[in-house]
Amino acid sequence: MKISRSSSPENFSTTKTRKNIELFEDYVEAINEINFNKGFVKNVDLCKYFGVSNATVCKNIKRLIKEELVESEKYRSIFLTKAGKILAEKSNTRHEVLYKFLTKLGVPIRIAEIDSEGMEHHVSKETLNIMKKFNNSN
Amino acid sequence: MKISRSSSPENFSTTKTRKNIELFEDYVEAINEINFNKGFVKNVDLCKYFGVSNATVCKNIKRLIKEELVESEKYRSIFLTKAGKILAEKSNTRHEVLYKFLTKLGVPIRIAEIDSEGMEHHVSKETLNIMKKFNNSN
DNA sequence: CATAAAGTTTAGCCTTGGCTAAACTTATTA
DNA sequence: TAATAAGTTTAGCCAAGGCTAAACTTTATG
């Protein structure tokens, strides 16, 4: 068993913090993409996007409203707030850079799509910058 | 906003599956490492390792026992089962390969330690093989 | 315009994964 | 050997994130 890295509670603390906002990042990314494609976003669109129930989406949207990342009245379309848009663009960019990076490494497209969905939330900006440079020179 | 990748419910389903076993992977890796360093593993060791409370560790160990990944009697040291050891070695190898990969890319050691802690759970074996090859030729 | 279909929200459930506090057990020390 | 310290387990709490079912609302259709 070889271990060159060092573990520490900080590593897990950071991971936990990243997990806490994972759902917000996924939802604003989804809303941004659906809005871009269709012009408006409904709960049923997010149900299909994530493969979860209507009740789950409804509940999660309420959390995003509470975080002031989206706006939505009862039975009305869902909109990103300014802060939501910022987070959406940031998350999408990170996701795209990582995805591109994986495909340029030689990871099959389908695998890169799956892996990047989970990995994206754990990439720091330093790591992302290095991946971006790699993308630009490969 | 540029998106070259395609999203799908499968991506989230796979991510969710990976998240479901994340805690098991972290715990068996930790138990393996602590046992390697100290010769035995107590709850308080895992508390320090993860930076969580004694009650949390106690509860989580019960889940690993239920999954037959560890063995432990009340107030006794914690041991990995055969299945636990296999998962621990597999997780550690994946973690180490990813960590090495990040450092070889130029990611500072501390950042690589933090990022790999979360990323490791979302790396498929195809992606890992490519990273391994990269490590061997850089 | 009434009915049906589709979509949304609420209620209540479950598991997970964290916490504090209290009670229990083991190990250490004076 | 008794007292103290350290470690462990249990109880009960919380929020998150999923579900089904039922009730509500909007949209589409005949």
What can be said about this structure in brief?
With 138 residues, chain A is an all-alpha fold.
Blueprint of the fold:
The structure is a homodimer of 138-residue chains.
Chain A: H1 9-20, H2 22-38, H3 43-50, H4 54-66, E1 70-71, E2 79-80, H5 82-105, H6 109-119, H7 125-136
Antiparallel strand pairs in A: 1-2
The first copy, chain A, binds a DNA duplex (30 and 30 nucleotides) through α3 and α4.
Low-confidence stretches of chain A: none
What is the makeup of the main sheet of chain A? 2 strands, antiparallel
Enumerate how many helices of chain A there are, as a single number: 7
Radius of gyration of chain A: 17 Å
* Second-tier CATH architecture of chain A: Orthogonal Bundle
Largest interface: A-B, 57 and 57 residues
Strands ordered across the widest β-sheet of chain A: 1-2
The overall pLDDT average of chain A reads 96
Helix content range of chain A? over 70%
Tell me the CATH topology of chain A: Arc Repressor Mutant, subunit A
Detailed description of the structure:
The structure is a homodimer of 138-residue chains. Chain A is mainly alpha-helical and 138 residues long. Chain A has one domain: Arc Repressor Mutant, subunit A (Orthogonal Bundle), CATH 1.10.10. Chain A is built from seven helices and two strands. The radius of gyration of chain A is 17 Å and the shape is globular. The N and C termini of chain A lie far apart (34 Å). The interface between A and B is large, with 57 and 57 residues. Chain A binds a DNA duplex (30 and 30 nucleotides) through helix 3 and helix 4.
